[in-house]
């Protein structure tokens, strides 16, 4: 399990050559397109999502960047009732590159790289107190506090002996191997809620999560803005998620029993079903 976890975790080189490099590319592009003299000056970029939490897994697919724009020239008043024009203007800055409008409500700009993978740039205005206005997709805005959510996760990671992020990386492999029914942010937040204590035994942590997770599906946005994170699940999808947890819990318990009996081949077989075909057999 330790080798598998190492294999799916990003290296220090990838953190700088891919993740930080792509964030810096966003900063360069937006600083050029929206300088301090612009009516819509770019302020700063903040790494968000899995890359910021240390839960991103290989191969690196997407990197999330929060792009904060300044209201120093009263730009907010221009776009207050028309977030679509704001988003389109940011996307236009990437003319000539392969882009797409993405997100649950079409509130981000996705920039694709020829080398593979992409960056999702979420352009926002700061409303103060770590609350940001994000385009809603219908011309309106939604409030979001991703930096607050990130800080909360970082605190939970420390409280759990720095064992939370590694476990979440394994859970993402499970999720990806079984229809990817759960959104990444939802899964991360569930894992942070499930445990009061968490050791470094990954097999034990996974088994406990699968057993307890059905009671923690309805977690709230730790940023305090989006309410319940399970709202995207239909009744049918919710039942499928619960059944997936139960099936994984059963297999994980059997894998641990097999390992205790010295049947390492059977244990590996079961973990491979749980965590996907890249798990060593």
TrEMBL record:
UniProt keywords, alphabetically: Antiviral defense, Transferase
GO molecular function, one term: nucleotidyltransferase activity
GO biological process terms held by the UniProt record: defense response to virus
Name under which the protein is recorded: Nucleotidyltransferase
UniProt source species: Rhodococcus spelaei
